[in-house]
Amino acid sequence: MRYISYSDCSDNELYKMLFDRAPDNYGKYEQIVASIVDNVKNNGDKAIFEYGEKFDNVKLDEKSLKVTKEEIDEAYEQVDEELVEIIRRSKKRVKEYHEKQKKYSWFDSCDSGSIMGQKVTPIEKVGVYVPGGKAVYPSSVIMNVMPAKVAEVEQIVMVTPPDKDGKVNPVTLVAANECGVDEIYKVGGAQAVAALAFGTETIPKVYKIVGPGNIFVALAKKAVYGHVSIDSIAGPSEVLVIADESANPKYVAADLLSQAEHDELASAILVTDSDVLGKEVEKELIRQTDYLSRKDILEKSLNDFGAIVVVKSIDDAVKLSNMVAPEHLEICTKEPFMVLPKIKNAGAIFLGNYSPEPLGDYMAGPNHVLPTNGTAKFFSPLSVDDFIKKSSIISFDREALGELQEDIIKFANAEKLTAHANSIKVRFEND
């Protein structure tokens, strides 16, 4: 793991290190993804079945592609009841948090005879991608589905890759059922995204696709954007911890490792004004890595994309953090709420020694689908807003329009749009 003393060179080094992980730098895969997307668009289910056999080593047909009620019932028999209750508690907390984000239609009427407003409408059909195969991510189901349910989306379609026996992980099925997913299909990868974007004989077309996936999923979402909306093109996960001498090195190291274990491209960075803390965290990283199950992934992630940066002050740490715009930001200082107002760019902010990043992944309530690779400078976490659309409302009577007619006509003529001007003129020709 890199141990860096802060300078302008540190800015550039960290920025390059993080940018190298971005999905935009995986152009060599784009041609493969484009071919898959076109095949599914043109051949529908036939292409889906071919890719299932090729990539997932599973044979499916029109009857077995969709998850049945019997399969969901069987999943409940296989999942420990305690875990089912934990899923329900997580779902409840996530739902309650997102209910505070709801937007409502509004109207503003004036004495002059005009009414203006905004109509808020849920997106009708949404597709949710959930990673599968060896992976089990019930938390991903909850985080992607619950804001859509709060927004009152009419139809939620989930896709997830099956195992070689054509089965979806039972925990994933239980989470989907608890959250109210309407339909579940056994398909993953770029082909699943294409199926949602264009529809097949079996899988319905949706209007928006959300959910995380590997580089093929990310690039497929990029390829179909415009045909449908997407949440984001997510890159590898990341955490940045701002800490001073008051932080517990054992906690800080554990939090860095909790993010590094996602995959070899994950990034875990500590920025501290205490060299003593930095050295202690470095020791803890070695000690804790040794007994964790994903040791190989942790070591590669930390060696390639991890860093401990020692700065002169917490203000310098904030400056560096705002440049990185991390997906997850932990502030482990004496007064974290004093640092908070200085933060401009971060996906989710965790304050204090007892607000670790995994709390946000599972049980806190805010969404864990967050902007990565510096996109927190202009993107926000997944929310209810992602599942609604807004229409402007305009209603004027003759008198109210009359008050603005000259302004509109002159404006239109200035743009040489005489038909625009005429649209107003004809309404007042007899005056």
From TrEMBL:
Reported function: Catalyzes the sequential NAD-dependent oxidations of L-histidinol to L-histidinaldehyde and then to L-histidine.
Record-level Gene Ontology MF annotations: histidinol dehydrogenase activity; NAD binding; zinc ion binding
Names of the cofactor(s): Zn(2+)
Signal sequence residues: none
Record's cofactor remark: Binds 1 zinc ion per subunit.
Enzyme Commission code(s) on record: 1.1.1.23
Record carries keyword Amino-acid biosynthesis: yes
GO biological-process terms attached to the record: L-histidine biosynthetic process
Family membership: Belongs to the histidinol dehydrogenase family.
CDD domains documented for this protein: Histidinol_dh
Coiled-coil regions listed: none
Reaction catalysis annotation: L-histidinol + 2 NAD(+) + H2O = L-histidine + 2 NADH + 3 H(+)
Residues annotated to bind Zn(2+): Q259, H262, D361, H420
CC per GO annotation: cytosol
Source organism of the structure: Vallitalea guaymasensis
Pathway: Amino-acid biosynthesis; L-histidine biosynthesis; L-histidine from 5-phospho-alpha-D-ribose 1-diphosphate: step 9/9
Descriptive protein name: Histidinol dehydrogenase
Keyword NAD: yes
